[in-house]
Amino acid sequence: MFFERHEGGEAAVLVQIAVDDGQPEQDLLEFEELVRSAGGTPVALITGRRKSPSAKYFVGEGKVDEIRQAREATDAELVVFNHPLTPSQERNLERALQCRVLARTGLILDIFAQRARTHEGKLQVELAQLRHMSTRLIRGWTHLERQKGGIGLRGPGETQLETDRRLLRARITSIEARLDRVKAQRAQSRRARQRADIPLVSLVGYTNAGKSTLFNHLTTAAVFAADQLFATLDPTLRRVDLEQFGPVVLADTVGFIAQLPHTLVAAFKATLEETLNATLLLHVIDVSAESRERLIEDVGVVLEEIGAGEIPQLLVFNKIDLAELPARVQRDEQGRPVAVYVSAQTGAGIADLLGAIRERLAPEIFSGNVHLSSADGRLRAALYELGAVLTEEWDDAGGSDLSIRLPMSDWKRLRRGG
């Protein structure tokens, strides 16, 4: 990558300040888990409350002294703020604390850099890092602001800072071009799916809700799944044949998090398009989490930000084995499934989930009996290919009576001879 990630294992002082600006207070346990996921070791936690952030340090000078004392007492190498910081605030804090200072955005970027596995994922993370660093480049080059000079270099020239910014812009342009090619390839695959009338079902949810484990159970794929934040960065697509429905494409996507940095949203456009173009979203929720209502709201905010707020959702309450809840399907007043309780770990409720997906994707179902003559062999084969045949009985004339159930759109298409 253009910027090498600093090796983990550093002792870190964590800082979280409640600011009276109407924003919900961040989860301290999640903050600690983010730091651990990045390879840090939390050694002290500084909390407090302010009416508004200080322009110079984000916190007050008294709190800066408290952070400095905690850093010196623990020999910490890093101070991490669970807040966005401006470049000037980071510089001022580093001078005052005499150590590296990292904001929430930089912390999440570091985790993403560790988790990226595919070429596309690494490009997306690097693009996000470059965009983030471009606003902070001056910090590393303040001693090189003066014009370059010397024999053969006298005259206008450019500062080292300007040179570095130019190189950085060129690298950003190069990565964007390569990601555009990936986007074009995805669009081509998407058009092929749409021509074949294959629905796309995308798994979304808060990070570590169990999306990849559920994906593996539904598709028998071998996607990396672990009890850690942002285990999945790269989208994985698999075809699944739903009984009595036909094929659908299932997509596993990157987990969301509160205050997801905009640089990441912009960089992961190609990945997020699998969410934007979905026919149905499976919103996976950790039912055992104490703050699950807040997590549901946070995912809703991110979906609105990326323009996917209007896509139909089916809530999937996962990890019922941890919460000791039974598998069940929750329906609305019209009898439509709106939530399914499952355990991706044990498999409880998975059959109910597949049935609910089938119902949500095919609200208009044709169900009945049809008689086919011996000349209707193509129609019979097409019905079997869609998995629409429930029973079949043959008569003496070589015809057959079929009990079928399939989406109305498919039935109309077959009747038209499509």
What does this structure look like?
The chain is of the alpha/beta class and 418 residues long. The protein is built from 14 helices and 14 strands. The protein has helices at residues 28-37, 61-74, 87-97, 104-115, 119-134, 160-195, 211-219, 262-267, 269-276, 292-305, 320-323, 350-361, 377-385, 408-415, and strands spanning 11-19, 41-50, 78-81, 100-102, 200-205, 236-242, 246-252, 280-286, 313-318, 328-331, 337-341, 365-372, 389-394, 400-407. The strands form three sheets. A seven-stranded mixed β-sheet has the order 6-7-5-8-9-11-10, with helices on both faces. A four-stranded parallel β-sheet has the order 2-1-3-4, sandwiched between helices. The protein has a three-stranded antiparallel β-sheet with strand order 12-14-13. The longest helix has 36 residues, at 160-195. The radius of gyration is 27 Å and the shape is elongated. Residues 1-8, 139-157 and 222-232 have low confidence and may be disordered.
TL;DR of this structure?
By secondary structure, this protein is an alpha/beta fold. The chain has 14 helices and 14 strands. It is elongated, with a radius of gyration of 27 Å.
Rounded mean pLDDT score: 78
Q: How many angstroms does the end-to-end distance come to?
A: 50 Å
How would you write the strand order of the largest sheet? Answer: 6-7-5-8-9-11-10
Characterize the main sheet. 7 strands, mixed
- Please mark out the parts with pLDDT under 50 across 5 or more consecutive residues, or reply none: 1-8, 139-157, 222-232
Helix content: 40-55%
DSSP helix count? 14
Gyration radius from CA atoms, angstroms: 27 Å
Structural category is: alpha/beta
Query: How much of the polypeptide forms β-strand, as a percent range?
Result: 15-25%
What is the β-strand count? 14
Q: Which descriptor suits the 3D outline? A: elongated
Element pattern in H and E: EHEHEHEHHHEHEEHHEHEHEEHEHEEH
